[in-house]
Amino acid sequence: MGRAFHLARFELRRYLAHRSDLAFGIALPVVLFSLMMVALGSDATFRGVMHVADLDGGFLANRILERVEHAGGVAVRRYTQDEFADALERTAISTGFVIPPGFSASVESGAPASIIVKSRGSGSDEGRFVTGIVQGALRAAASEIELRRVAGALAGESANDARLDEAVQRALAGAPTRPPVVVVTESMRVREASQLDRLLAGIVVMFLLFSGTLGARALIEERRTGTLERLMTTRLSAGELFVGKLLAGIGRMVLQSFVLLGLAFAVLGMAGPVVFLQCLVLAIVVAAAVTAIGLVIAAVARTEEQAAFSAVVLTMFMSVFGGTFLPTSGTGWLDVLARFTLNKYATDAFVALFGEAATLADQGAELVILGAVAILGLAAARKMFRVSSSAV
Amino acid sequence: METYLEAEGLTKYFDGVAAVEDVSFVIRRKEIFGLLGPNGAGKTTTIRMLSTVLAPDAGDVCVGGHSVVREGDEVRKRIGICPQELALYPELSAVDNLVFFGRMAGLSGREATARARAVLAGVGLEARGNEVVKKYSGGMQRRVNIGIALMNRPELLFLDEPTVGIDPQSRNHIFETVLALRAEGTTVLYTTHYMEEADRLCDRIGVMDRGRIVAVDTPAELKRQVGDPDQTTLEEVFLHLTGRSLRD
After folding, report:
1. In angstroms, rounded to a whole number, what is the distance separating the alpha carbons of residues A287 and A260?
2. Which residues pair with B216 in a beta bridge?
3. A181 and A219 both lie in a single domain
4. Which of A73, A219, A309, A358 could in theory staple to A362 by disulfide, Cβ–Cβ 3.0 to 4.6 A?
């Protein structure tokens, strides 16, 4: 097996000598992940926008919008009636609010009034969150109005608006902020996996898959240039050749994972070195499975073009249907399809580790499946391997 | 002279078509044996069988007393292959290439490094061994290609068209290297399309056509079979034996 290790070391040196491979395998995923992080924001707290057409412009409408803005996490963007209709039509917004004319006056006179929520279809998650915040602000504003009404009734006709408002604000400020009975929720200190975590896992797995399957081209290139045939006239056995290639693939992909995961852990503030090491161990198992699939492609394909085509199709299929970027659990047939991809097991295991809720020991099923793919793939590749594709 | 390689009834089919059929010949120890033939004659398939890359469908080859069919690893210990293609890693240095193939041939790291230096000196590249191969000229790359085949000090060296596309100086250097190897005791199987090259280097020549051996003898005897050996060229012998029709 010494020759297999030496072959693997040599392959890694060749990999490091190829700038284009390095750029694709390491620089590209780092750039892609950075772009996604900038686009989504690494802060996991909710931020949304209340799109509103305030056709009332009255005291109460302003008070509600102020409360929404002070609630934190929500910015208020105002529209005219036409702008609002246009934005909704163009799908620039999926959920918006209309404060109808006379809203404030109706409320102050005790007549029923409403704020209209307009949404395209069922709206968006952001729209539903913002609606909840607006409803909270409405309830607070309603309390304030009720208080004003009661205070006004008690003060009678002698009270002026400014003094009444001042008294209400003072009363509100002095009111207990904590209701007499509360529900206290205690949760374990768990960093739940965010959308960004899933994206990171997806990118790591997708690039490992690309790297491993496209690595098949290298073996076919060796067949074309004659180095493979030359190797097989040395004392290197076919078994050693495949083990060496597998080790080289693992080494290459662990290097990629180390860089990408290291960056992500540093930027996202993921838990310490233990989780990082567990992720690297998982990366080794994923890399073994992916490299084995690449070797099967290399054993079957006759040309580099065939290998590249097979690698891209397989990677894209597994990435799209394997839940690389969106969870597939509970999606019916998609969930079933996902079970036939490496990505599902690899991505789910990474996401679980990122979230700190699980350890590598909890990922037994995923590790067994990935390990089995590695072993069976290696055996199949060895069985189907031909030194030469030509009959010259 | 002692027989070093003996091929007996070698046959290989691809998709039901015989690429090599019932080929038998011997190569004597320390001789340079030329294997000539037009394109598609079966030379490369024969060499692949001799060097354990392809398993014959029938027949066997004995190399240094070992069967390529049953004792492949013993045969691989004794042979060195220089294929027609530049079968090396151009993005790495000549030293890296030589050491790598030396390690694959079973040398230790220290042995491989020392042997690589010696081989580079032998092929005239000791001063530029640490440069990446892709920066070399065609002739230099050909010399590295041969050097790799010498790393394990082979008893039998296969040189498959080693002088294609290089300048006269590099070609001459390769001739001198081959002759020096023979003088040191190496047996050589040499294929080429350059007849004057075969005439100059080879002790004996086997001519293949359509998967079969059609003649085996010394260059002088082959010429004598066609005409006056002093007036006849090896190319005339070759055309006489294989015909003038174009081959695919």
Report:
1. 14
2. B206
3. no
4. A358
- If asked whether residues A140 and A218 sit together in one domain, one would say no
Q: How much is the pLDDT for B240?
A: 86
Beta carbons of A311 and A297 less than 8 angstroms apart: yes
Closest alpha carbon to A212 in A283, A303, A305: A283
Half-sphere exposure at residue A309, Cβ-oriented, CA atoms within 13 angstroms? 7
Q: Is A247 in the same domain as A381?
A: yes
- Tens of pLDDT, residue by residue over A259-289, are 888 877 777 666 678 888 888 999 999 999 9
For residue A70, the enclosing domain spans: 48-187
Which among B73, B83, B96 has the least Cβ separation from residue A226? B83
Residues 6+ apart with CB under 8 A from A162: none
Cα–Cα distance for residue pair A373/A392, rounded to 1 Å: 35
Tens of pLDDT, residues A130-162:
888 888 888 877 777 777 777 777 777 666 777
Provide the residue type at A88 as one letter. L
Contact A302, A385 (CB under 8 A): no
Q: What is the pTM assigned to this prediction?
A: 0.72
DSSP bridge pairs for B135: none
How many domains, in total, are found in chain A?
2
Contact between chains at B83 and A3 (C-beta distance less than 8 A): no
Give the pair of three-digit tokens for residue A349: 């295991």
Tell me if B117 sits within 8 A of B129, measured CB to CB.
Answer: yes
Question: pLDDT tens across A301-341, in order?
Answer: 888 888 888 888 888 888 888 877 676 666 677 788 888 88
Q: Cβ of A235 under 8 Å from any chain B Cβ? A: yes
How much is the ipTM here? 0.89
Choose among A14, A232, A235: nearest Cβ to B106.
Answer: A235
B61: burial class by Cβ within 10 Å (0-12, 13-18, 19+)? buried
CATH code of B3-242, in short, is 3.40.50.300
